[in-house]
Specification:
The structure holds 2 protein chains of 2 kinds. By secondary structure, chain A is α/β, with parallel strands linked by helices. Chain A has 16 helices and 12 strands. In chain A, α5 links the parallel β3 and β4. The chains are: A alpha/beta, B alpha/beta. At the A-B interface, α8 and β9 of A face α3 and α5 of B.
């Protein structure tokens, strides 16, 4: 609690401090590559038909390959202000781990990343990247061995080493002030996109679409559109193996109110309050909780939430690869996949802004296996349609 | 006077003996073994028993209690099952102070009010919810007071005076001082600054201050007993219980006896 109070007071000062804001802005532009482009996806739009125009906010083009760096740079600078020489983080897909390890290297901090054993198996590339960046990657073998359990271990480390360590939470979850801090750092996505789309399309979009696990890229792009009541905000969760039977990670759609990791929000839990294992093919969505601000958006009906299955997400991955030459991460592949379901229900000529939160290099092996099987020879030619 | 107050005031006369508090995860090694283990603890002089309701994500716990909790959940221990077991213990031990320890989500899912009412019905004396800071404990305090359930909050080595004051205000029964920064689990040694921290808490309250986390044997119990009103033993006890499974609990009795004889200032 004392550390949370310190973090909040340091952050509130930093937020008003021009020097901090200038430092962050400089890091985001010179180092991370902001602003990211807004790309009119013409061939994808044609495929959807009905004159629908899709714009992709290209967070996948950021340094380290995902939106996570927006937050880790911000929190890394806060850690430096607090004089904490050590950074820790949890990671699911490994993108937040890589972004934290990167910032630790950049700012000369020690770094330890907690990652579930299951995720280490399916996101090996990112494990190597973190190690090459000088971070220690600690496998987590408790519980479901995925993101939730990595969070548990990171919190246990933090309470143990709190005097020297800052815990960089990767999503808009955890105890206050984390959901607020992460939302603020990620809102740069929506602020840029809002300006860009007004320039490119001459108006605000009809729909803003983003995938939701913990929900940081989604809240980052939603938040600046909050007061634009004409803009529909849609979050796409992971339906995993599908409703009603299969395991999934659709917390907002299927969860109930609970408390996990210091957050009161929706939660996948049983009747006794035990947290259930989530499932998604996308390690970054494989989390049984969700940011409390999304629960609020849902409650006041400012945003809608829906879900697509593992199988649909893989189709979404392929759709973007084949129409636009972009390999998306499996997480935003959920948002891409949802376009196919959404398009027939939209007015002709609608404008849809999609947050392409990360690139798919980390998932190539897994997707190849899922789409073409494990026999290497079969990977040479695309599957006939 | 409730059982917790009675236990501490009963000790204060006994030439400096301090309370020995034992933690058990209900369902480890089995719910059926619980009465036998509690009987043994009482026979060896344990003053207060904390019964842990297992939770899937025990953030404040180290490997031992994590494993015990997971084991219990795999063997289908439920919150209702724990309450039933507590009822059985209470029938056998009318005067033993019993405290439930669990995380906030099972409590909130059960219903905070309902949880306190059920605790009162089973004659539980107090609750400890380590992931619930006093700042967020309004619902629990409102439900626990009329049910006459003590609310025991945790103070950490990093808690500044302003927070200690809050913790003390919200606490009844005793204050649970966490000996170190970190999670539960037996450690080879405890930090020396326990003494100063316990003193600064005692300046703020007349409630007993008990120390837990990291206590592994008689040496640490002695260190704690010199400065605080009680020592809380959890993981190290579960380790001994785990090692004794299938062989009877005579080693557990011997272990507790050694702790008990170290409970003097």
């Amino acid at each position: 609690m004392a550390a949370l109070a310190e973090l909040e007071s340091v952050y509130r000062k930093a937020r008003r401090d021009r020097r901090f804001q200038a430092e962050l802005h400089q890091a985001l532009t010179e180092y991370a590559g902001r602003p990211t482009p807004l790309y009119p996806a013409a061939r994808l739009s044609r495929r959807l038909g009905r004159g629908i125009r899709v714009y992709l906010k290209r967070e996948d083009l950021l340094h380290t390959g995902a939106h996570k760096i927006n937050n880790t740079l911000g929190q890394g600078l806060l850690a430096r202000r607090m004089g904490k020489p050590r950074l820790i983080a949890e990671t699911g897909a490994g993108q937040h781990g890589v972004a934290t390890a990167t910032v630790a290297a950049l700012l000369g901090r020690d770094c330890e990343i907690y990652m579930g054993e299951t995720d280490i198996g399916r996101q090996r590339l990112n494990v190597f990247r973190m190690r090459l960046l000088g971070a220690k990657v600690t496998p987590v073998t408790s519980g479901s061995k995925t993101l939730k359990d990595a969070c548990n271990e990171a919190i246990r480390d933090w309470v143990t080493n709190v005097r020297t360590t800052h815990y960089i939470i990767g999503s808009v979850v955890g105890p206050h002030p984390y959901p607020m801090i992460v939302r603020d750092f990620q809102s740069v996505i929506g602020r840029e996109a809002r300006e860009q789309i007004r320039g490119a399309a001459g108006r605000l979009p009809d729909v803003v679409l983003a995938c939701v696990g913990g929900g940081s890229n989604a809240i980052g792009i939603f938040h600046p559109f909050f007061s634009d009541r004409s803009v529909r905000l849609i979050g796409v969760e992971a339906a995993g193996k599908g409703f009603p039977r299969g395991p999934h990670a659709a917390t907002l759609m299927k969860g109930t109110v609970g408390v996990l990791h210091g957050t009161r929000s929706f939660l996948l839990q049983d009747s006794d309050g035990q947290v259930k294992d989530a499932h998604s093919v996308a390690a970054g969505l494989d989390y049984p909780g969700v940011g409390p601000e999304h629960a609020y958006y849902k409650q006041i009906r400012r945003a809608e939430y829906d879900a697509v299955t593992d199988r649909e997400a893989l189709e979404g991955f392929r759709l973007l690869a084949e129409t636009e030459g972009i390999l998306p991460a499996l997480e935003p592949s959920h948002a891409i996949a949802y376009l196919k379901r959404l398009a027939p229900r939209l007015k002709r000529g609608s404008i849809v802004l999609v947050c392409l939160s990360g690139r798919g290099d980390k998932d190539v092996e897994l997707v190849a296996e899922e789409l073409y099987g494990t026999v290497p020879g079969l990977i040479l030619a695309p599957r006939s349609r | 006077m409730n059982r917790i107050d009675a236990a501490f005031s009963g000790l204060s006369g006994k030439n400096g003996r301090k309370a020995l508090i034992a933690y058990l995860t209900v369902g480890f090694p089995s719910v059926r073994a619980l009465p036998e283990i509690v009987r043994l603890l009482v026979d060896e002089g344990v003053d207060l028993v904390e019964l842990g309701i297992p939770f899937s994500d025990p953030l404040a716990d180290g490997p031992t209690i994590q494993a015990a909790s997971q084991w219990a959940l795999e063997h289908r221990v439920t919150v209702r099952g724990v309450f039933d077991a507590v009822g059985g213990i209470r029938r056998r031990h009318q005067d033993l102070p019993l405290v439930l320890m669990t995380y906030y989500n099972p409590v909130s899912r059960f219903g905070v009010k309902e949880f306190c009412r059920e605790s009162a019905r089973r004659q539980v004396d107090g609750v400890i919810v380590p992931d619930l800071p006093p700042e967020e404990a309004g619902d629990l305090l409102r439900a626990a007071r009329p049910a006459r359930i003590d609310t025991i909050f945790l103070a950490a080595p990093t808690s500044p005076d302003s927070r200690l004051r809050r913790i003390v205000r919200a606490s009844t029964g005793f204050i649970y001082y966490v000996s170190l920064t970190g999670v539960t689990g037996a450690r080879a040694s405890l930090p020396p600054e326990i003494k100063a921290h316990v003193r600064s808490i005692k300046r703020l309250t007349d409630l007993p201050v008990c120390v837990g986390f990291g206590i592994s044997g008689p040496d640490q119990v002695r260190q704690v007993a010199a400065v605080a009103d009680g020592a809380i033993i959890g993981s190290a006890l579960l380790n001994v219980i785990g090692e004794s499974r299938g062989k009877g609990f005579s080693r557990v009795a011997a272990f507790v006896r050694r702790l008990r004889s170290a409970c003097h200032a």
